[in-house]
Amino acid sequence: MWFLRKMLRIPWTAKKTNERVLNEANKRRSLVKTIRKHQATFLGHVMRRGKLEHLVTTGKFEGKRSRGRQREKIMDGLATWLGTGKVLDTLAAVKDRDLWRDMIANAYKQGT
Which GO terms describe its molecular function (predicted)? Predict the structure, then answer.
């Protein structure tokens, strides 16, 4: 962000949010999209393999839950990003590799 502020000659004392600076520069955040894409491709790889990593990512292991608010699971975030809405629909789509690749490509084009 600092380089955009420097290019647009925005002084450090100006109270502008990063979103506003991005809008002025006609730029969009792309790091989150890239991370989500890598997460989705890795998830497809792990889910088709079906070993220990599959159990960990789906959250099907025994033990007590921690106190307080539960953390957001990777599966929930990817399900909303891919537009499936439900984790079970996402897991079903992983089995078909071509469908999974198309879903990732469409989600990446649409953004976050």
Answer: translation initiation factor activity
